[in-house]
Amino acid sequence: MSPAEPRPALARRLRALREGAGITQAQLAQALGEGRPLSTGLISSWENTQRPVTPPVHRLKAYATLFARPLNMDGDTVLPVKQLTDEEQVSRKDLLAELLWLRDGRETIEPAPIRTDFWQFGADEDITIVCAQLPEEYRQHLTYADPENADYVLLYTYADPDALIELFGHIRSRNPDNRVRFLTAGELKADDYTAHLVLLGGVDWNTVTKDVIERVDLPVEQVSREAEPRNNGFRVKRGGETRLFSPRLDKGGHLLEDVAHLYRGVSPFNPRRTVTVCNGMYGRGTLGAVRALTDARFRDQNWAYLQDRFGDAETFSVISRVPVVGGQGLTPDWTVEENRLHEWPEAGA
């Protein structure tokens, strides 16, 4: 049984777990939401035996952890696994094995091949890098961006070309036998969405970034520069608290520090593939998100930090500062605490 097939048995089991504990879908959504409740519609879709939606593995892990112990829904949340008793640990292990079997026909998660690099993917898995097209108002001032010009250069029509060149070469070198392509958001065909997706640039210009962020479970929202010229940045919601991480500009409008966001998760279009978002409020933030894991001076230690911090989590994100000196964005070093503005999931979650 493949993850693309409906799983009514899993849907029935998830519903039975909830009803057996005597809790509502809204209460379960609150408990699983890590401070930001999931929608009851999402819970309902996982329990729908007619048209079931298959939860990602990290959600099944949360189910197993939550239902491994007696529930008290006055304030119950998913405890860190290490806080479970020995008996609860055994219950969690057995329940997770059952849920994985119902999901994939297997009791354990097959060990992934050892990766030495964040940008290394499985053999024979296609990788599609998606950029925004530079808006017409900017292209019209670039001679080489005019298709009628004899010296027309296609790359001049792309937003974030520096990030694209940096990333494309690195991914190709780490995945020499894979098909690696780069396209603008408007060039994507239906089949392109089912590859590993790497999205460059934010919601202002990259429509695929906007679409993906709206579909995934992530407490980070990019506030558009076009919508909020004076109050933009990356907005993080947790419980009733909201924080905004914004770039810094001087009085003359020169960029002093950008904000970069890296997100990696299960693709909403193909559960066997990933989606990675590298974006910033400005181009130097996008490049900083890329270079954090391509720059030879920092990539190994940053990759080691991600492994140590998030372990085998399928979904995580890091917001970091990108200082700008002499017009150049500096590669963020994530081993320096002050460079990391926000991480999700939070430690201990």
Automatic annotation (TrEMBL):
SUPFAM superfamilies documented for this protein: lambda repressor-like DNA-binding domains
Question: What PROSITE patterns is this protein classified in?
Answer: HTH_CROC1
**Which GO MF terms does the UniProt record name?**
DNA binding
The UniProt entry, under SMART domains, shows: HTH_XRE (SM00530)
Q: Where is the signal peptide?
A: none
- UniProt cross-references to InterPro entries, sorted A to Z: Cro/C1-type_HTH, Lambda_DNA-bd_dom_sf
Domain HTH cro/C1-type: from-to ranges: 14-48
Q: Which Pfam families match?
A: HTH_31
Q: Which domain of life is it from?
A: Bacteria
Q: How is this protein named in the record?
A: HTH cro/C1-type domain-containing protein
State the species of origin.
Amycolatopsis rifamycinica
